[in-house]
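Notes to self after the Tuesday call (sharing in case useful).
The group wants a holo model before anyone commits to mutagenesis around the pocket. I volunteered. Ligand is guanosine-5'-triphosphate. Logging inputs and output together so the record is complete.
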Amino acid sequence: MKVQTVEFVGSFPGVAKAPAPSLPEFAFIGRSNVGKSSLVNMLTMRKDIAKTSSTPGKTQMLNMFDVDETWRLVDLPGYGYAKVSKKHRASLRTMIEEYISTRPTLHCAFVLLDGSIPLQKIDREMIEWLGENGIPQAWVFTKVDKGRSRKTAQHLEDSVEALKADWDELPPHFMTSAEKATGREELLTFIASSMPPA
Ligand code: GTP
Ligand code: MG
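Result:
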């Protein structure tokens, strides 16, 4: 699938303030700093349509981007960032969970998992929560370019093995690098195949 036009719809402090559901939505969720905003830029080939930062906690709202006026990317705040207050963390969590559990046009929640480190407990919990709530999900391992390739490959293998223990059949999963555009075609093809027929 080709990407021609990308339009920033806006930043919203909660699903209640977001535009009424219309286009099919694909959301990026994951721990702070995992690379959600970078992946929006990589997929759309726009250098910084989504704001990124080396410091965790950059995205604090629901950010929406319309692609080719036919589907929508939703860049969510990260979860689990330890350096913000408990109250703030809880409010971000509510923002994420309310969006995911109430949005009728959410077609797929992409859970981003940092491919350069071992699988984290909080990620397994999010995956489990999505499963329990019957939300269609796919997994995106990020930063596969990082570090020594053998080490990264081992982390990826271990993570997939660990997840297999919880799943009879694994959801679709992708290996990506926003730096090198790895996995771009695969993700776009998957998104195209998940959309309702025009
Ligand atoms: P929050 O908005 O804080 O939740 O973070 P985020 O998940 O949106 O992460 P963001 O895209 O801002 O990226 C965080 C950091 O990781 C930045 O310094 C990026 O340059 C870096 N990064 C993201 N993707 C990749 C990647 O594929 N490879 C490498 N090497 N670094 C990456
Ligand atoms: Mg972000």
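Two things stood out.
The mean pLDDT is 93.
The first helix runs from residue 36 to 44.
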